[in-house]
Amino acid sequence: MPFRPNAAPRRVWPVVVWYILAAALLACAVAASLAYGALNLNPSRALGLLLRPDDSSDSLVVWSLRFPRTVAAMLAGAGLAVSGALLQGVTRNPLADPGILGVEAGAALAMLIGIVFLPNLGVWGVPLAFAGGLAAAGLTLAFASRVGLTPVRLALSGVAVAALCSALTRAVQLLFEERAQGALFALSGSVAGRTWEQVGQAAPWLLAALVLALLSARRVNVLALGEDVARGLGVNTRRDLLLVSVLGVLLAASAVSLVGPIGYVGLIVPHLTRTLLGTDHRLTLPLTALLGAALVVLADIAARLIDRPAETPVGLLIAALGTPFFIWLARRQKG
C-alpha cells in the first residue's frame, strides 16, 4: 500500500487483539522450532525439556542446537523488521528496507573483510558491520539525492549499491579464498548452527537498539509528517533524523552479524502492521517486532523441513515471498 504518513488508522479489531494474536503466533512458532527438524519431537516434550532439561539426547538437541538458533531467529527477525519500519518512516518511502537500501550488503562486506583480516573479531563484529551498513546507506542516499529523491530512485540506488557490495564481497572471497572460508557460514543468510556465544555477542546490541527504537516512536511519527511540518512543531529534524537512521542501520547490521543478510523482512512486515494498525509508530513498532520475529522463526522451520535432513537457506525462502511483494509495491508508486 502507498505510504501515507497522515492516513487514518485501519483498526478492524482493538489494538490489544492484534498484539495477543501476534504473541500467540510467535509462541507457537517457538514451540514448533524447538520440536521439528531432522529429529522430530512432540512439542509438549520439547517445551518440557526446555523448562526441565535432563541428560537425554533430546534435551541436548533442544538446548544446544534448537533453542539458540530460535533465539537468533527471533532477534534477527525483530531487528530487521523494526529497522525497515524506522527507515520507511524517516524517509517516507514505502520501498525503504535495509536490504534494498544496501545496508545488509554493506554490513556483510564489512564482516567479511573483518573475518579475513582480523580473524578474532569477537564482540567487534557488530560495530564493524554497523560501519559497513552505515557507509552503504550513505552511498545510497548520495546517489539517489543527486537527481531528486523519490521512492523508486532511492530503491534503484540501493539495489546498485547492494550489487557493488556483493561484487566486492565476491572479489574478496576469490582473492583470499582460504581465509574467507570462515565467513561463508557467518554470512550465509541462515540461522542454522548458531550458538549461544554468537547470540551473546549480538544480543546486547540488538536489544538495546530495539528498546531505543520503541522509545523513539514519537520522533518517527513527527519526521513522517515531513521536514517542514516537523520544524514547525519545534523539532530538531536533523538530530532526530540522524538518530532514527542510525538506529535503523544498527538494527540491520546487528542482525547481519548474527545470521547474515536476510532480505525483505524489513519490507514486508512494516507494511502488514501499518495495514492492521495505521501509521502511528507507537502502536506499530512493537507489533512489527513480534511479527518480524515470528516470520524468521517460521521461515527457519520451513527451511529445515523442505529438504530434510538438508537445510534450505532462510534468506532464499523469504526472498521467494518478498521479491513479488517488492515488484507489486514498486509498480504502485507514482512517478
From TrEMBL:
<feature type="transmembrane region" description="Helical">
    <location>
        <begin position="67"/>
        <end position="87"/>
    </location>
</feature>
<feature type="transmembrane region" description="Helical">
    <location>
        <begin position="241"/>
        <end position="263"/>
    </location>
</feature>
<feature type="transmembrane region" description="Helical">
    <location>
        <begin position="314"/>
        <end position="330"/>
    </location>
</feature>
<keyword id="KW-0472">Membrane</keyword>
<protein>
    <submittedName>
        <fullName>FecCD family ABC transporter permease</fullName>
    </submittedName>
</protein>
<comment type="similarity">
    <text>Belongs to the binding-protein-dependent transport system permease family. FecCD subfamily.</text>
</comment>
<feature type="transmembrane region" description="Helical">
    <location>
        <begin position="12"/>
        <end position="39"/>
    </location>
</feature>
<dbReference type="InterPro" id="IPR000522">
    <property type="entry name" value="ABC_transptr_permease_BtuC"/>
</dbReference>
<feature type="transmembrane region" description="Helical">
    <location>
        <begin position="156"/>
        <end position="176"/>
    </location>
</feature>
<keyword id="KW-1133">Transmembrane helix</keyword>
<keyword id="KW-0813">Transport</keyword>
<feature type="transmembrane region" description="Helical">
    <location>
        <begin position="124"/>
        <end position="144"/>
    </location>
</feature>
<keyword id="KW-0812">Transmembrane</keyword>
<keyword id="KW-1003">Cell membrane</keyword>
<feature type="transmembrane region" description="Helical">
    <location>
        <begin position="99"/>
        <end position="118"/>
    </location>
</feature>
<feature type="transmembrane region" description="Helical">
    <location>
        <begin position="283"/>
        <end position="302"/>
    </location>
</feature>
<feature type="transmembrane region" description="Helical">
    <location>
        <begin position="202"/>
        <end position="220"/>
    </location>
</feature>
<dbReference type="InterPro" id="IPR037294">
    <property type="entry name" value="ABC_BtuC-like"/>
</dbReference>
<dbReference type="Pfam" id="PF01032">
    <property type="entry name" value="FecCD"/>
</dbReference>
